[in-house]
Amino acid sequence: MSRTASSTAQDFVPFATAALDFHRALNLPGGPLVTTRAELDTLHDHLISLHGLLDAHTLRVGGLVPAEGEQLSVARTRIWQAADHLHAAFHAAPHPDSGDMPGPEACRVGLPEGAPKLTICQRHQRAAHLARRRTTPTDLHAPFTGLIRR
Which tens digit of pLDDT belongs to each residue from 13-55? Predict the structure, then answer.
């Protein structure tokens, strides 16, 4: 089994990175001053996808190269934490129509805003289940990454 991926397996991540850079360059300089709920939902979707990718790499590599697997595990946890903050930011952002701001407890009730507006909450709850299975509560809430500068 080869330890390196083929070039075709690596073709899509650079495109995702370039798309984010392109989005930032085009939309942020002249765009609205406040991030929209739709953009927060999309950014959350991106981070949850990245979390899933890191989870797959962590599971595969962890048994073969424990030191690398541990670092990937920490990265996966930090991406989850970033997604959790994006989810909170979504709930702190005003509705475009009314300006109302429901709290995060609204997610647990179901779909108080109606589909598809709360896809972020459904996605977040599914990913939270995975995050809780793969990490400890201490890891999920730890402010220190474990990285040491040399």
Answer: 889 889 989 888 887 777 677 788 888 999 999 999 999 999 9
Q: For residues 74 and 148, what is the distance between their CA atoms, to the nearest angstrom?
A: 13
In this prediction the pTM is: 0.78
| H/E stretch holding 127 | helix 119-134
Integer distance in angstroms from the first to the last C-alpha of the chain? 33
d(CA 70, CA 75): 9
At residue 103, what is the residue type?
G
Residue with tokens 């991030």: 35
The contacts of residue 99 (CB under 8 Å, 6+ apart) are none
How many Å apart are CA 67 and CA 73, to the nearest integer? 10
